[in-house]
């Protein structure tokens, strides 16, 4: 997918503040509001911009414990297990990783009791999981979503 320097500027500006208006963006990149609107629509049409969203601070919403899991799964059950876990509201993200049918999962819960309950009731009870490793985040130094230009 091709994009030029103006598109790159627009993407960087929107990555920093997705609420910027077409007028504000136009002022920053030196184009008209209509030209900026057309460029953003083009970026959306080409799939470069997938969606606009809000980033919510999970800690301030009561999810104080953040943990990562490496979950090994029987190969024939990988898709079913991944979908089952993806449907769980405590699972923030889940990815299939290289290796022997491994899932990498980020979980957000209110406290350590909820984490223990998630592990015992939601994870260990899933048929097809062969191994679970977990790491709890102690301190966040950097966190971002999406692709950084």
TrEMBL record:
Listed GO CC annotations: cytosol
Domain HTH asnC-type: 3-64
Pfam families documented for this protein: AsnC_trans_reg, HTH_AsnC-type
Domain of life: Bacteria
SMART domains per record: HTH_ASNC (SM00344)
GO molecular function: sequence-specific DNA binding
A GO biological process held by the record: response to amino acid
Keyword Transcription regulation part of the UniProt annotation: yes
Annotated protein name in UniProt: AsnC family transcriptional regulator
Organism, scientific name: Ornithinibacillus bavariensis
């Amino acid at each position: 997918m091709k994009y030029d320097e103006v598109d790159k500027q627009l993407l960087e500006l929107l990555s920093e503040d997705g609420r910027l208006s077409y007028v504000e963006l136009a002022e920053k990149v030196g184009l008209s509001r209509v030209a900026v609107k057309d460029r953003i629509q083009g970026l959306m049409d080409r799939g470069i911009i997938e969606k606009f969203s809000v980033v919510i601070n999970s800690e301030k919403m009561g999810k104080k414990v953040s943990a990562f899991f490496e979950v090994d799964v029987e190969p024939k059950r990988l898709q079913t297990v991944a979908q089952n876990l993806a449907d769980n509201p405590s699972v923030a993200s889940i990815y299939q990783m290289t290796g022997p049918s491994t899932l990498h999962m980020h979980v957000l819960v209110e406290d350590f009791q909820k984490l223990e309950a998630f592990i015992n009731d939601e994870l260990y009870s899933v048929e097809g999981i062969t191994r679970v490793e977990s790491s709890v985040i102690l301190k966040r130094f950097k966190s971002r979503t999406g692709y950084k230009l």
